Amino acid sequence: MEKKLAARDRFNIHQTAYSLQQGVIMCNDKVVIPKQSQKRILNELHLGHFGVIKMKHLARRICWWPGIDRDIENITKNCVQCNDTRNNPRKVETHSWEPTTTVFDRVHIDYAGPFLNHYFLVLVDSFSKWPEVRIVKNTSAKTTIEKCREIFSTFSIPRLLVMDNGTNFRSHEFLLFLKENGITPKFTAPYNPSTNGQAERFVQVLKVGLRKNLERKIPTFDNIHFALQQLLLSYRTTVHTSTNESPAEKMFSRNIRTRLDLILPTKPQIHVHVNGNIKTRVFKEGERVQCRNYVGRNKWCAGKVIRRLGKLHYEIALDDGRIWKRHINQVQKIGNDTSNERDELEFDYTTPDNTQTVQREQEEQNLPTVQQEVPEILERHMRNCGPPQRYGKVYVH
Ligand SMILES: [Zn+2]
């Protein structure tokens, strides 16, 4: 006689946790990975070789299958690189730094290498743990300044820069660069590199990760660069044990998209009709306007609207008698008494601009969408769109 099992015993999970979204089976908010894809996903999670804790964190954000924790433990237990990282007991920092409250307030800098015939400039932000790495040919003050300038122009000029006593960091040139940008240098005690623990720790991650990712490849510049970017993406999107958030979340208040996100169900795309709800300017017949002129010194020629052609084009009689066709973006309202003081006889009947306008207009009659016009709402958005407040204005001299 067949034994009847309760539904929750059969799958060892509450059936209510499952749902189907866009054809993808979900368990709560995680994608259920079918047996045949589990190995592939496991390898993707293992890319950075960050050990069992980080791998589990990464998986929990996105996917699940029965026994996923056991599979993660097994893969890391049998991986030399993961074991290497695990076996290094965390060094006690001899210097405890003040906790930072903003991104790029205090930044730790160090050089790694020569490793695989290259040097690596490593910068770690103490607040977000976001690492930046540049592959360089030498470690001179000039190179260091050049790379720092690149990084600071993206993220912000830091307030404090922590570094060791390397001659490049101690050089007059580098110290002047820091002074000019208002950065306070902090040097670690000689022969005690663990004071600069944040940079030092990432250097270890970098060495292990690169070696593993390059295992079967020739260490050419291209291959090293590829392996480095892969490692950085994994590290930046994986939870950092000291902050319980990924460097990307701390840095941008959002997670950045990775290949793992491809397994999530696709959200239906929202199509925004560019001109749907946006009020387009309308000119009345006889209204006094000026239109854009593309030849000669005068940018504008005054005239009157004869009629509206289609949705966005107008026929305009200029004060000098010429008749022009213009797109609405090339027309401005002016006062009734404005005269065409800069009158100059410049005929542009055959200018490419005019032909284009007519062509565009013909196209528009068939296709009611607008290709050229930037909707006012977007224009407004673009004007207001600056860098996030916390970066402030960045001038790197
Ligand atoms: Zn590993």
Automatic annotation (TrEMBL):
- Domain of life of the organism encoding this protein: Eukaryota
Gene3D superfamilies xref list: 1.10.340.70, Ribonuclease H-like superfamily/Ribonuclease H
* Example GO molecular function: nucleic acid binding
Top enzyme class: transferase
Provide the Integrase catalytic domain boundaries.
95-255
One GO biological process from the UniProt record? DNA integration
Coiled-coil spans in chain: none
The EC designation for this entry is 2.7.7.49
Q: Which InterPro entries match?
A: Integrase_cat-core, Integrase_H2C2, Retrovirus_Pol_polyprotein, RNaseH-like_sf, RNaseH_sf
PANTHER family, A to Z: PROTEIN CBG26694, PROTEIN NYNRIN-LIKE
What is the name attached to this protein's record? RNA-directed DNA polymerase
